[in-house]
Every structure is written in C-alpha cells, then in structure tokens.
Amino acid sequence: MKKIVPDPPRFKLIISPHFSVHSDMLPPDSLGLANEFLCGVVETLDQQCSDSAEQPDLNALASAAHATRMARTLVEHALTRLRS
What we know:
This protein is an all-alpha fold. The chain has a domain of 57 residues. 60% of the residues lie in helices and 0% in strands. It has two helices and no strands. It is elongated and about 70 Å long.
C-alpha cells in the first residue's frame, strides 16, 4: 500500500515594497544612489553571464532585480522633485 503524500503547497511570490524614499531626498543624492545600485546590477549580471552561465545563481539574479526596482524608484523620485 502506498502512503498518500499531499502535493507541496504552491508558494506565491509576494511582491511588496521593501524600499521607500524619503520625500526630502535631493534629486542629485537620489540619482547618485540609483547609479550605485545600477553599477551593482551590472557587476552581478556580468559575473552571472561570464562565470555562471550554465548554472545561474537565482539569489544573485533576484537581488539584481530588487536593486533595479530600487534604482527605478529613486529615479522616479528625482524626476518628480525636478518637475515640481
């Protein structure tokens, strides 16, 4: 007799903001920080493409995606502040 094993739970990816920008942050500071995040993304993706092309590190790629979202938030903040 086979032991009945239930299917594992399906984990739904939770997408929630874990990053906020202070409303008084100056646009140059915001853009400088966005640049640093994007430099880290480029470095991570370069390493993944050259060193780990066959076996990508999903955690590193997820981190790069998160840093990209943070950079986008900072750029949007800078644009909003410059327009007002």
